[in-house]
Amino acid sequence: MAKKILIIEDEPEIRMILAIALEHEGEFEAVTAKDGAEGISKALKTRPDAILLDVLMPGLDGYSVCREIKQHPKLKDIPVVFITAKSDHAEMTKVIDAGGCGYLAKPFDPMLLGAQIKFLVPALRSEYAE
Amino acid sequence: MNARNAREDIEFAAMVAHELRTPLTSLKGSIGLILGGAAGPIDGNDRLRTLLGIADRNCERLIRLVDDMLEMAQAETGTLPLRLHTAPIEACVLRAVESVKPIAEERNVSLAVSLAADTPPLLIDQDRIEQVVLNLLSNAIKFSPEGGRVGVSVKREGGRVEVEVADQGPGVPEAEREHIFEKFFRGSNAGSVEQGMGLGLAISKAIIDQHNGAIYLRENTPAGSTFVISIPIPGCPAQ
Questions:
Q1: Angle at B103 between CA B125 and CA B143, to 5 degrees
Q2: Can you give the three-state secondary structure of A4-25, one letter per residue?
Q3: What residues of chain B lie within 8 A of the CB of A108, using their CB?
Q4: Which of A10, A13, A94 to probe by mutation at the B interface, max B CB count within 10 Å?
Q5: pTM, 2 dp
Q6: What residues of A are in contact with residue B84 (Cβ under 8 Å)?
Q7: Which tens digits make up the pLDDT trace of A7-63?
Q8: Do A107 and B36 touch (CB under 8 A)?
């Protein structure tokens, strides 16, 4: 059964590319949200297996959204992977502090996206399937 | 430049870098999906594959330029983040050599590595040092003639460890020698090789400066150049 990934990304084109890239291999089903508020609402409604979360968004930034997710009793166990234009030690520290399990740096290779998310979130790998 | 202007420059460069990364992510993502067959099969359409390959490579090039711009802004103000650890510099050199092997093979340039046995560990940011060695090796390969040889060696010289990168290229014109580490400088010999912004050596110098080291052109003849990175050994008196 396809694993459900919630993509929270304000840029509509990048949102679409992420969704196509994930669904292309047939292993994932993508659900999308344009900002943090919609993301949290969709997370509650769809209970995704993992969340891909953009860092820089208008309104609540990705770190704040992640902290809300991690404090929510129904969402706290969902792994969160950040998508960020920065990729350095400081960024990694912020990701960990916010409760994320890793990040993907923009620009990413869409054909490697599925493999990279599975690397960061072991629960998405087939050997961990229930 | 005062501290406030420097901070504003970095913030501006970071903002430009981010603003450029977003459309580049869309562009590279779309090209990657088409090349990967996510928009339908492209097998058998060699012309389409070639054109998409050109677009993809140039996208990569723009991404590198954006990264360089940001790094240069940080380097100029001495705020390039360094993660310093005591580590052998040889590991950085060997990783850089591994990275350039495909380009060297493509250009039929041989690589020779020589590591001395008595080099102590240094206080370095391994990723940054690898980046500098990679830059020197890439330049050396780019300027080497077909069938040429690029040598890289690591050895101890008194209280310092030196990494030498020697090529058999046309050398640097003497009039340009003092400018090669300046930002946006592109030598007259660069015309025939891949276009860049002329930031690679300037960023390399900034990285080595932040290690209290030196980077310079030691040998320069029409038959080849030798660039040197020299890093002080912790605890050894400065010379």
A1: 90
A2: EEEEECCCHHHHHHHHHHHHHC
A3: 25, 29
A4: A13
A5: 0.68
A6: none
A7: 999 999 999 999 999 998 789 999 999 999 999 999 999 999 999 999 988 888 999
A8: no
